[in-house]
Amino acid sequence: MTISIKDVASKAGVSTASVSRVLSGKPGVGKKTAERIREVIEELNYRPNLGARGLVKQKTGNIAVVVPRGSFVLNNPFFSTILEGVAKAMDQTDYNMLMSFTSIQQKRLLETQAVDGVILFSPRHEELSLEWLESVGLPIVVIGSYLEESPFPCVRPDDEDGIKQAVTALYNLGHRDIGMINGPMSSMHSVRCLNGYKSRVKELELDYSSDNVLEVDEFDVFKATQAMKTFLNNNKKITGVVCSSDYLAIGVIKAASMIGLSVPEDLSVVGADDVPISDFITPSLSSVHVDLVGIGKRATVTLMNLMEGKQIRKKDVVFEMKYIDRSTTSIPKNK
Amino acid sequence: MTISIKDVASKAGVSTASVSRVLSGKPGVGKKTAERIREVIEELNYRPNLGARGLVKQKTGNIAVVVPRGSFVLNNPFFSTILEGVAKAMDQTDYNMLMSFTSIQQKRLLETQAVDGVILFSPRHEELSLEWLESVGLPIVVIGSYLEESPFPCVRPDDEDGIKQAVTALYNLGHRDIGMINGPMSSMHSVRCLNGYKSRVKELELDYSSDNVLEVDEFDVFKATQAMKTFLNNNKKITGVVCSSDYLAIGVIKAASMIGLSVPEDLSVVGADDVPISDFITPSLSSVHVDLVGIGKRATVTLMNLMEGKQIRKKDVVFEMKYIDRSTTSIPKNK
DNA sequence: TTGTATGCGTTATCAT
DNA sequence: ATGATAACGCATACAA
């Protein structure tokens, strides 16, 4: 019993064409008739059917937000903060946000002409194939970088430099044995972070050893914490650690406390990305800040431009990072 | 240049009707022709246009997840954890998740026949009018309770009992001066929590005073923290506080640390809902646990049933809560 | 079993 | 300025 354009047309005594014209604000309809039509629309509380419109215009009016790795991400403040930016920017447009978490959903979403464009949160190598992504032929903007050879515009933090700043900050405090907690190397993000760590450590003429870096999977918080515990136990000389995410940093703090190390007295910890909660927990987390909300907004705007056929100036937009000194870092204790 | 059902029909040398039939797995098509059609579909990599299908079937295939109060919620683990449950359950269905954060978006989404049903995160009184919600005539399930007179099925934590348990736990530890940090009373949740606090305090024959409860708006974290500081300063006799959410509890811990109170030595803190990060921070937060993911799942399943026209047995599903003793609570210090 | 024809709610083209 | 009418891509009632 939905009310259609025909209903308002007949009630207003005009053709559907005219109604459609006033609906889309197109010229070619008399002032008086237009007025009458508007009244009827109001009266009947008519709302156009977006699906039908989409059918003829070949546009759906919604864009897909594709986040791999399951719904886990929702509880990761890194993602949710960027998502906040995406949502805010999207509110400025006429598009709706279609979220999908599983690959089955994602495939269906992108293949069934259900969206006009997609925002893709950087998948890992094994997750979404570049080939398939290209084959769907949709405008795509990726957040957080994917593969080097990806043809899609990308918006991301300068994570490599971020980690460098973190190492430097620790060094300046007097730390000489600096460890690193990283995510899995199947993600470009982790690769970049490791690069940053390595190169800065060498620049500072500290000795680099793979023993000092721990690679964990953030999905399994429990396993990750366990790994950190043994890592810290096996590397007693480490006085400070940099992490590739705040999430991991919070885990390290927990692991440290479990084995009787206090932060920052016994161990300095710095995170990365500076998610909102990092300033909120006690002690507040030293981190390398980046405008995550801005990244989400920028990605959305870029996608809009892409969909309008505009030329994209920068195919790779990187947001600068900045070290924030808070309460999980201090001068190393003499051992 | 999208490929349609006609293309596969002609290439297979059959009518679109037959193609449509195999597509929807309906009987009435020969084994051999069906096979041929399937081959062509594969060959052409044909995918049905969901919009067109929706037009004729009067279904869109997606459901709206309506979260009021802006994208703020994304960074609130309470919401994102429930959302995780919604997403997981949704993955089991053929529906897509359309998220909306602003009221303009929400109106458009629900009015333009863009969705078949909606999951509504409990709005505050002033946000979404019951009248309007009913007028759109969509199947709606609300999460976390809305208005008493709401006709929509609802899934929520037993927050009233949760707060009672929190008060009791503190009492059993020896606390006699127990404060409360609550959200704004425009939300049913806060109303319920206050009720629980009041009634249990009276049952325990502690004296109730409105001076002992602070009402803050969780949106403005900064302001909230400030308010908590002055609250704690003005109520030195309080040795323990219960909070209507873990989010607030984390804030209290920060406020306490700012004015030199240590948790739990000087002040015991209990949260509510037990979001994942609460067990992860240091010291880990004592809280009243509830299966948030389960709530999300349950709401989704209920919505599915509602859309299928099934009779809903329980119009009000409440999930029980259970106190979890962790590290932010202890025996009160003698003053 | 298979095909034809119509309609779903719009927009757009072409007449008038 | 206005109105028929043909698409859009699909499902289905009805014929064959």
UniProtKB/TrEMBL annotation, chains A, B:
<keyword id="KW-0238">DNA-binding</keyword>
<protein>
    <submittedName>
        <fullName>Transcriptional regulator</fullName>
    </submittedName>
</protein>
<dbReference type="Pfam" id="PF13377">
    <property type="entry name" value="Peripla_BP_3"/>
</dbReference>
<dbReference type="InterPro" id="IPR028082">
    <property type="entry name" value="Peripla_BP_I"/>
</dbReference>
<dbReference type="GO" id="GO:0000976">
    <property type="term" value="F:transcription cis-regulatory region binding"/>
</dbReference>
<keyword id="KW-0805">Transcription regulation</keyword>
<keyword id="KW-0804">Transcription</keyword>
<dbReference type="GO" id="GO:0003700">
    <property type="term" value="F:DNA-binding transcription factor activity"/>
</dbReference>
<dbReference type="Pfam" id="PF00356">
    <property type="entry name" value="LacI"/>
</dbReference>
<dbReference type="InterPro" id="IPR000843">
    <property type="entry name" value="HTH_LacI"/>
</dbReference>
<keyword id="KW-0614">Plasmid</keyword>
<dbReference type="InterPro" id="IPR010982">
    <property type="entry name" value="Lambda_DNA-bd_dom_sf"/>
</dbReference>
<feature type="domain" description="HTH lacI-type">
    <location>
        <begin position="3"/>
        <end position="57"/>
    </location>
</feature>
<dbReference type="InterPro" id="IPR046335">
    <property type="entry name" value="LacI/GalR-like_sensor"/>
</dbReference>
